[in-house]
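Project standup — Tuesday

K.O.: blocked on the structure for the chain from last sprint. Re-posting the sequence here as requested.
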Amino acid sequence: MKHHDQSQQRQLKNAARSLSEAVASLRTPDEAKKFLEDLCTPAEIEAMVDRWRVAQLLDQGNTYRDIAELTEVSVTTIGRVARFMEFGEGGYRAVLDRLKHQTPGSQTE
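H.V.: unblocked you, prediction finished:
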């Protein structure tokens, strides 16, 4: 990560808040897909997709070894996702739980 002075850190915090608000404003999976494709490089999207897939597989009770074989994601990344699922801010859990309670097709594209 880049080193920022105190003023830059405040600006970065405000920009991060603005990005969170932008993501929260997206109404459909198609809008989210388009936003991510505009915002991120293909490699960044692939890394996020890998982490999300790992989170889903961990939530289903799969072992690290099974996940590594299924996804070709490193055990280090799998461990990092698992750690954030347990000790992070609760973002993975909030979305996983929300999607479990969502009826198929309730989000339109």
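K.O.: great, moving the ticket to review. DSSP finds six helices and no strands in the chain. The helical segments are 6-25, 29-39, 42-59, 64-71, 75-87, 91-100.
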